[in-house]
């Protein structure tokens, strides 16, 4: 219990440090947020008044704690490029697409990785194993943006299963949107499937060499019983960490997939906000990404403590 509390405290401290560093970094970047909001035609008096209104005349610690206090309540200020639009509204409009894409990608990864890894182990050295291993190596070697282009070209332009660039609104047509998002989800998931299969296969083969497996075989258990009843459960423990890293990466926003498939998600919003120097939006997205990544890693550490007693410190 003490170790779990320690992990949670470490999480809070880490998030505070990252939030301060990200806030300070955008403060030190050359440029004037007040001038960005008003435009180049604004007078010096107007810029100065806007700087005071935005609190830019205060010290860095004062501005940080003011921003942090509002951020903890979900208030990240207003967008500099979308006058009158709050950052929270922008994030709320883009987050459903990113989360839905992440959920579909994770489902595909889990649905494909486990059976493919079990096939590779159960029929190690067979043509099926060699074929899956070769396809995995090729898939991992293909850049993400090129894989997205291949999916768009083959399924969109050749087979005409979907119309590239014609994203369907998630609220107005839920199942139509899910169908469209399956293709970018496949582009995101395929390299992760290849990596997960390879990692899980290595873990399974390592477990197959241990003494308890030989004991299980000596008791008359068949290979399927040994693999599914004994080896698989123990092999999944180290895979949890890898799966969490994959989940964190996907939940953080699949920037490449959103750009290639013209999805209005957080990744695409961050790219456009960086280009337009809309720092309040970028700060909020960075805080979201770091929170997801650090929180998932902490969750994995806690799960390790609960699942494997050997990791507990008395």
In words, what does this structure look like?
The protein is mostly helical and 314 residues long. 76% of the residues lie in helices and 0% in strands. It is built from 13 helices and no strands.
Task: For this entry, give a set of tags.
314 residues; mainly alpha; 13 helices; globular
Taking the sheet with the most strands, its summary is:
none
- The portion of residues forming beta strands comes to under 5%
Tell me the distance between the termini: 9 Å
Radius of gyration: 24 Å
- Portion of residues within helices: over 70%
Number of E-state strands: 0
Large-scale geometry: globular
Tally the helices.
13
Low-confidence segments, ≥5 residues, pLDDT <50?
A: none
Summarize the structure.
It contains 13 helices and no strands.
Set down the secondary structure blueprint.
Blueprint: H1 2-28, H2 33-38, H3 44-53, H4 60-71, H5 87-122, H6 127-141, H7 144-158, H8 174-208, H9 211-218, H10 223-251, H11 255-260, H12 266-275, H13 279-307
Helix pairs in contact: 1-13, 5-6, 5-8, 5-10, 5-13, 6-8, 7-8, 8-10, 10-13, 12-13
């Amino acid at each position: 219990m003490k170790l779990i509390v320690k992990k949670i405290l470490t999480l809070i401290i880490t998030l505070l440090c990252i939030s301060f560093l990200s806030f300070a970094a955008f403060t030190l970047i050359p440029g004037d947020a007040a001038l960005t909001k008003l435009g180049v035609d604004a007078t010096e008096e107007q810029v100065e008044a806007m700087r005071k209104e935005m609190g830019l005349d205060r010290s860095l610690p004062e501005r940080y704690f003011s921003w942090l206090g509002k951020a903890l309540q979900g208030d990240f200020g207003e967008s500099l490029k979308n006058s009158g639009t709050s950052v929270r509204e922008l994030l709320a409009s883009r987050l459903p697409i990113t989360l839905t894409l992440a959920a579909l990608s994770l489902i595909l990864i889990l649905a494909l990785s486990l059976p493919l890894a079990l096939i590779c182990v159960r029929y190690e050295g067979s043509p099926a194993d060699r074929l899956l291993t070769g396809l995995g190596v090729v898939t991992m070697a293909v850049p993400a943006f090129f894989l997205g282009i291949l999916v768009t070209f083959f399924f969109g332009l050749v087979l005409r299963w979907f119309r590239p660039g014609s994203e369907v609104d998630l609220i107005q047509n839920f199942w139509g949107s899910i169908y469209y998002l399956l293709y970018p989800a496949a582009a995101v998931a395929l390299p992760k499937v290849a990596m997960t299969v390879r990692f899980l296969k290595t873990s399974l083969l390592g477990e197959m060499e241990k003494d308890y497996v030989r004991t299980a075989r000596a008791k008359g258990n068949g290979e399927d019983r040994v693999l599914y009843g004994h080896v698989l459960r123990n092999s999944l423990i180290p895979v949890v960490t890898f799966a969490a890293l994959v989940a964190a990466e996907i939940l953080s926003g699949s920037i490449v997939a959103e750009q290639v498939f013209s999805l209005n998600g957080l990744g695409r919003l961050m790219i456009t906000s960086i280009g337009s120097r809309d720092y309040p939006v970028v700060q909020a997205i960075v805080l979201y990404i770091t929170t997801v990544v650090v929180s998932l890693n902490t969750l994995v550490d806690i799960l390790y403590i609960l699942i494997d007693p050997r990791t507990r410190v008395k």
